[in-house]
Design a protein that fits this description.
Layout (H helix, E strand, L loop, with lengths): L4 E2 L1 H17 L1 H20 L5 E2 L5 E4 L5 E8 L2 E9 L14
Parallel strand pairs: 1-5
Antiparallel strand pairs: 2-3, 3-4, 4-5
Helix pairs in contact: 1-2
Length: 99
């Protein structure tokens, strides 16, 4: 399957999270980036392998970080809707499903 695409707000969330972790420690920032890459590869290989999440999406929970990538599969495309902190209001990104 194709590489995941990112909703613009999800892309911003990823960039902000990376910047935050990199500002704490460059190694932590790199670990976040590696975990994001691991998530993308797994979802690309097997999009149905992740658990059902909110609002008909599927979610991949990051190891070692309080984040989950919420995504949908449409017409052979993987679209990341959110890179959400697990402690943030669940489903805050629901409106992105219609964008």
């Amino acid at each position: 399957m194709a590489e995941p695409e990112y909703h613009p707000e999800a892309s911003d969330e990823v960039a902000n999270a990376f910047s935050h972790y990199a500002s704490v420690n460059s190694e932590v920032g790199e670990r976040f980036k590696l975990e994001l890459n691991r998530a993308e590869q797994l979802v690309q290989r097997s999009p149905d392998s992740c658990r059902t999440f909110f609002h008909g999406t599927q979610g991949f929970r990051f190891r070692g970080f309080p984040f989950v990538t919420a995504y949908i599969v449409r017409d052979e495309r993987i679209i990341a809707i959110a890179a959400a902190r697990t402690r943030r209001t669940p489903g805050y990104w629901r409106s992105r499903l219609t964008d």
